[in-house]
Design goal:
By secondary structure, this protein is an alpha/beta fold. The protein has three domains: 3-165, 3-Layer(aba) Sandwich (Pyruvate-ferredoxin Oxidoreductase, domain 3); 182-442, Thiamin diphosphate (ThDP)-binding fold, Pyr/PP domains (Rossmann fold); 445-547, Rossmann fold (3-Layer(aba) Sandwich). It has helices at residues 16-28, 75-81, 107-114, 121-132, 137-147, 152-165, 185-195, 210-223, 233-245, 256-272, 299-304, 320-337, 347-351, 418-439, 463-473, 488-495, 511-518, 537-547, and strands spanning 3-11, 33-39, 48-56, 67-72, 85-94, 103-105, 182-184, 200-203, 226-228, 250-255, 276-282, 313-315, 340-346, 353-355, 445-448, 454-457, 476-480, 482-484, 500-505, 525-528. It has an eight-stranded mixed beta sheet with strand order 6-5-4-1-3-2-14-7, sandwiched between helices. The relative contact order is 0.09.
């Protein structure tokens, strides 16, 4: 099978995310590329959770509407998702909780006989799936031992009972490729930050970036990393600025509501020229909104957050591979140009699971900007052609290091002088010009396909689903990865002159469209989605056809 999907569903608290990851690892072990979408309400118990695991012989980053296997821990899953099942697909379910045409596994009975806790029901269902898919027991056993360092034996017993009670319904072939590392988007971001030289990560947990905090906390001892969880997002940002001024390569993580609290500190970083990376995981808003669902509603906010005018970098990777690369480069560029850098993620990317392909892209060289022998007396905000001044750590022998949120002179001394104020404002903006020039060395706009009739323009996690839709419709995709400073020349070359341009976004006001129109580009139609759920391939293809007959 070249492309197939598995859906596993049940109640919150039944380990559906972990179960989905294990199924993903089973299929990954057979050499398939993987994408997993996890859907859950903001309830600890009682809500309906499900994971869609898609496996293919080619790179993927989006889910499909229909599935080939439906794994149900309860009756609700069958009611909600039976309509997704393809003709000839298989249903495997807990026969003690529901009735259906398919493979029934008496999970409650198995747990009672094995003296197993309720959470292990999903292991029984996974075992049944492995047998149905023709996956050898030894493969499943190896993965369960790795995934469950605690409770290994009881999970193995329950999985074996499910395996033995099942029957083969389909054949999972082994593609002629080696399984790739399987990571979440947040893990890819964390690994990229570490590659870029991260030494401190500071965050207050907020979905969908919470798991980035957990991941980096787990590995901090392996990388000499400092991970700190302050009392709120205001403290997070101010602590990060202090760390940066002390020479730490620092990043913070948050979502929209937390980023609101960080905006005063963001302006402080802009004025004081302190490098910091902000991982902004978008979710449906405003306010609390839908805490566990996705959105692309923060693009304009990220580009303009905080009062006044200063340079910043905003990037929006599409999948784990881009997240790995651009997280690394965002940290390097933030440090090189002494600016805030914002990585725009969302629930789809941050909590999705991907096969990670590390491309052979070169990293930029970090120019350490400590004071040289000629910089005496040391002037923290010395005027330069690029706007970037020597940056000494605190303390540095023989140098007075000033950090000032007021307008200031070259030494960092507060000033309200009109001429100096204007000169410092121009200095802040020159850094953006230098950054734009440096970004010319990067692939800041990604393209796919050659169709001249229709161009799909998108950003962020919509990239993979637009790519597959373009293949179906004979269109092409133009996707800016850097969203500020906007790569106008590169985007114009990539877009060319298509017969029609359709912009695809997950917000209600077509935020990227407004940016494109501001640069004089024609937008013929938009396809917008703002219900918190990502596009499936089939859904997007239908929506695009509706606006481009």
């Amino acid at each position: 099978m070249e492309d197939f999907s598995v859906l596993i569903g049940g109640r919150a608290g039944e380990g559906l995310n972990r179960a989905g990851q294990i199924i993903a690892r089973l299929l990954n072990a057979h050499g398939y590329h993987i994408y997993m979408y996890y859907d859950y309400p903001s309830l600890i118990r009682g809500g309906h959770n499900f994971s869609i695991i898609r496996a293919a012989t080619h790179s993927i980053g989006a889910h499909r509407t229909h599935v080939d296997v439906l794994l149900a821990l309860n009756r609700e899953t069958l009611i909600l998702h039976s309509g997704r099942l393809r003709e000839g697909g298989a249903i495997i379910y807990d026969s003690d909780a529901a009735k259906a045409d398919g493979i029934g596994i008496p999970l409650s009975k198995i747990l009672k006989e094995e003296g197993a806790p309720p959470i292990t029901r999903n292991s029984g269902l996974i075992g049944a799936f492995a047998r149905a898919a023709g996956i050898q027991w030894e493969v499943l056993e190896r993965i369960i031992k790795k995934e469950f360092p605690k409770g290994t034996e009881i999970n193995l017993k329950v999985a074996r009972r499910g395996f033995d009670a099942s029957e083969q319904k389909l054949r999972i072939d082994r593609p002629s490729m080696k399984g790739l590392p399987l990571v979440s988007g947040n893990e890819a971001i964390g690994l990229g930050l570490l590659r870029g030289g991260l030494t401190s990560y500071i965050a207050y947990p907020m979905t969908p970036t919470s798991s980035l905090l957990h991941f980096l906390a787990e590995v901090e001892g392996d990388f000499g990393l400092k991970v700190v969880h302050p009392e709120n997002e205001i403290a997070v940002m101010l602590m990060a600025i202090g760390a940066a001024c002390g020479g730490e390569k620092v990043a913070v993580g948050t979502s929209g509501g937390g980023f609101c609290l960080m905006t005063e500190g963001l302006g402080f970083a802009g004025m004081a020229e302190c490098p910091v990376v902000i991982v902004l995981g978008q979710r449906t808003g405003p306010s609390t909104g839908l805490p566990t669902y996705t959105s692309q509603g923060d693009l304009l906010f990220a580009r303009h957050a905080s009062q006044g005018e200063f340079s910043r970098l905003v990037t929006a990777p599409a999948d784990a591979s881009e997240a790995f690369f651009w997280s690394s480069e965002s940290l390097r560029l933030a440090w090189r140009f002494q600016i805030p850098a914002i990585i725009l993620s969302d629930k789809t990317l941050s909590e999705g699971y991907y096969s990670l392909m590390v491309h052979s892209r070169e990293q930029s060289s970090v120019e350490e900007s400590g004071p040289g022998n000629e910089d005496r007396p040391y002037r923290r905000y010395r005027f330069t052609d690029s706007g970037v001044s020597p940056m000494a750590k605190m303390p540095t022998r023989g140098a007075v290091v000033k950090v000032n949120s007021y307008y200031h002179d070259e030494d960092g001394i507060t000033t309200e002088d009109a001429a100096m104020t204007a000169s410092m404002q121009e200095k802040l903006l020159r850094k953006g010009e230098a950054l734009s020039k440096e970004l010319g060395k990067y692939e800041t706009v990604w393209t796919h396909g050659r169709g001249e009739d229709l161009a799909l323009v998108c950003w962020g996690s919509n990239g993979p689903v637009c790519q597959e839709t373009a293949d179906i419709l004979g269109a092409r995709v133009v996707r800016p990865i850097v969203l500020h400073p906007f790569p106008e020349e590169a985007f114009g070359r990539a877009l060319g002159s298509p017969a029609a341009t359709v912009v695809v976004e997950q917000n209600a006001t077509a935020q990227l469209s407004s940016i494109l129109k501001g640069f004089g580009h024609r937008v013929d139609a938009t396809v917008l989605k703002y219900d918190g759920r990502p596009f499936s391939v089939e859904e997007l293809a239908t929506r695009v056809q509706e606006v481009h007959a």
